[in-house]
Amino acid sequence: MDALNNAVNTAILSLNDAFWSWAVIPLLAVLGVYFTIRSRAVQVRLLPEMIRNFRGTPEVAPDGKKSISSFQAFTISAASRVGTGNIAGVAIAIALGGPGAVLWMWIMGLIMASAAFVESTLAQLYKVRDNTGYRGGPAYYMLHGLNARWMGAVFAVVTIFTFGFVFNMVQANSIAAAVGNSVSTVSATPAGTWVAPVVGVVLAAITATIIFGGVRRIAHVAQTIVPFMALIYLVMGAVIVATNIDQVPAVLSDIVAGAFGIREVGAAGVGTAIMMGIRRGLFSNEAGMGSAPNAAATASVSHPVKQGLVQTFGVYFDTLIVCSITAFVILLSNPVYGEEIGAQLTQRSVEASLGTWSLHVLTLIILLLAFTSVIGNYYYGESNLEFLTTRPKMLTLYRSLVVAMVFLGAIGSLDLVWNLADVTMGTMAVINLIAVAPLSVLAMRLLSDYQQQRRAGLDPVFTRDRLPGVKGIQCWESSRPALFADRK
Hints:
This protein is mostly helical. It has one domain. The protein is built from 18 helices and two strands. A two-stranded antiparallel ribbon has the order 1-2. A hairpin with a 2-residue loop joins β1 and β2. α1 packs across α6 and α14 packs across α15. The longest helix is centred in the C-terminal third of the chain and has 42 residues. The termini are far apart.
């Protein structure tokens, strides 16, 4: 069995290296730079607007309850973003790619924030109504914007598999590993084989309770847990950085030197640093992957650009804040590269600075953040399943399979689930960016419209007659609700 697992891992790893080197990374880099230039660096220029647009009152949905607010849509996407990718993913990038992987993670985060703006703005433009408000995402702008239902269907299937199944296996695997590490510390002996199955059963049961409750329950859980747990983690990390402030310049030097091959760590040359930084960065911030637009489309806002800007801020929060804290916590502990990997490396680094108690606190943080990622990932899959079919039996089957995958992920192999995630994640990004490239001109026109209204002192309101000649827009009627009319 071990020989088979090794053979499968080796095959997937070889596929990953070729796929990312020749397709994913070039496409991400070229389009990220193009969107940045075309929008005149919207991700930097309009940072104050990103903060401003967190405020807002949503419409009333057809079922009589409030639609998803801009902030709730942000937290759904943050629930998926802020989790294993920030804690375990960054640790894997550093363990395999050395300190230099961190700089490439930052660079790609800054560049790809422009892609996050474009894809989420398009998701808002081409969203559709449902009973609880709105839904949408890449599959919908492929259908209504490109008139390519086949492409939307392919993307929907890949998204369901990637987020509903593979990424949830990754999250469950990291939770089980973190809990096992805490158990080992308390008992002073290696965690027993019972830990992972028990964690898997508990996670599966809680996941079922929440995901069978619908998007509002998901939004409520995400809105409650994500900010609180992220804040505790950031405070712990800030304390570690502050108490080791004299070592920060040396850490920054290692990051820059490692990124350009000036100072290699083990086998982590510049190529490995770039590859790991971009892979783990994309897994963490999801910019350009086509996942966050599924959450962005649910928001009830008066102009598509508003949610595009809010989702852009999510990339900064994820990569430049949360991932950076993890990187500094690990690098300040002088890790031995390659000995530990994943969540365990982050846990041991925190423990080395703050003591054993902090390891257990971090276990709780990983558990809750990774769990909110599970339910955020689930929703991305659900949104795309509804693109393919609205049959209730299929939704029940999907939910049941998600619960099963959570359990299997908890007891699975770390290498296998992460390598499989790289394949499906890269596939999603390629399909999405191929669709976004021709539609990006509409995002730029919307950005221009938004800025014109802001310069006139208005709170921007969009109606589809402001894009004459553009077909396929399902919402944004000229007779907008009074809630959004003539606001200043």
